[in-house]
Amino acid sequence: MNSPAEIAKNYVPIGKGKASMKASKLFILGIMAGIFIAIAGVGASTASASLGGSVGKLVGACVFPAGLTLVILAGSELFTGNCLIIISVLEKEASIVGMLRNWVIVYIGNFLGSIFVAWGMTACHQLSLFDGALAGATINTAVAKVSLSFGDAFLKGIFCNMLVCLAVWVAFASKTAAGKIAALFYPIMVFVVSGFEHSVANMFYGPAGLFAMSNADYVAKATADTANLTWGAFFVKNLIPVTLGNIVGGAVFVGLVYWFIYLKKDEK
What pTM was estimated for this model as a whole? Predict the structure, then answer.
C-alpha cells in the first residue's frame, strides 16, 4: 500500500501528463468519463426509485460509486478528479495554463457524455419503469437542484469534491483493482447519501429531468413544482455554483492541503 506521502509524490507525474495530454485524447476521455458517471446515475436513480424512501436513497448511493470505479479502472478524464492537477502545478511540473486547458476540454467532454446518456434515458423509455415512478423521481431531482440558492449549491459543491478527490486519493493508496474499488466506495457513497453536489453528475441529473419534461405522462408523475425547471436555471442556479464549489473543494481542500503537507519544501 502507498502511504499518503507516496501518493502525493506519485501523483506529480500523473498530473503533469494530464496537463500536457493531446487535446483530442482529453476530449474523448472526457466524454467517456461523462458517460461513466451518467450511467452510474441511471443505476442509482433506478435502484432508488425501485425501493423508494430513505432505503432507496441509501441503495442508490451504494450503486453510484460504479461511476468513479469505471473512471479510474477503465481509464478516462473526470473534471472533478482533475482538480488534483494543482499538485503538479505547485511542484512546478505543470503550468497553470496546462491545468486550465485540461479542465476546460475535459469539462466540455464530460458534459457531452453526460447529456448523451440523459437524452438516451428518455429516448429508450427507461423513465417509464415502475409505472413512471422513475420519471417522477428524475424530474423531482432536477427541480430540487435548480431550487438551491447559489450559496447552498456552492458549499455543497465544496464538500462533494472534497470527498471525490479524497476517493481518488485513497484509491491511489492501493496497488490492486479490488483495493482501489474498496477505497473509493465509501467517500463516494457518503457524498451521494448526504446530498452534496457534483457538477458532472448534475450534467446528467439536470438534463435528464429537462428531457423528461417533454413527456406529459412523465411530468404527471412528478410531485415537485416544475415551473422553475429550465435550461437557464440549470446552468445559472446549479451548474455554475456547483462547478466553482467543486474547484475549491478539490483543488484547495485536498490538492493544496496535501501538497503543503507532503511535498512543500521546508524553508531553512
Answer: 0.96
